[in-house]
Amino acid sequence: MARFSFVAFLGVAAVINIALAITEDEKNNIRLNALPVLTSCAQELGIKMEDVVAARQAKNLDALNPCYYACFFKKINVIDKDGLFVPAVAKANHQKYVHGADDLARLTASADTCTSVNDQAVTDGANGCDRAKLLARCFIDNHGVGPFSA
């Protein structure tokens, strides 16, 4: 089984590994599509890519500004203009890049479970930074997937 980089879906380029049976072509397509968005978000927020890499290597979600996660999620429409997680978009993104039924089922379960982040109190409202970090943490804690995946 290949190690799947969930970073493209979570857009955080920045958490844990999940073993999915996706092909190398699928992984490369995910990375290819995520990298420009992640780089753009780092530039917009004045975050050095070296810091992103260091945070990823340390698997430290707290090392980066949570608005970095929000930027990515918003650019791929996984978090909407109101700062809320949109699981239907996450699921649609999964279907664009992953084609195995078992893998899609696991990713769908992750999106369903993590919808609960929309019920959690945040201090920044529509900015979505707090919720984006909660979302990344949910995927990591509940399903072993996340923005620092290898």
State the order of secondary-structure elements, H for helix, E for strand.
EHEHHHHHH
The residue ranges in which pLDDT falls below 50 over 5 or more consecutive positions are: 1-19
Number of domains: 1
CATH topology: Recoverin, domain 1
Global mean pLDDT: 82
CATH domain class: Mainly Alpha
Radius of gyration: 14 Å
Name the CATH superfamily assignment. Pheromone/general odorant binding protein domain
The DSSP helix count reads 7
Query: Which strand order does the major sheet show?
Result: 1-2
Q: Which word captures the global form? A: globular
Q: What structural category characterises the helix and strand content?
A: mainly alpha
**Span from first to last CA?**
13 Å
Number of DSSP E strands: 2
The helix fraction, in percent, is 55-70%
Strand content: under 5%
| Biggest sheet character | 2 strands, antiparallel
In CATH, the architecture is Orthogonal Bundle
InterPro entries: PBP/GOBP, PBP_GOBP_sf
GO molecular function, one term: odorant binding
Keywords: Signal
Protein name: Putative odorant binding protein 2
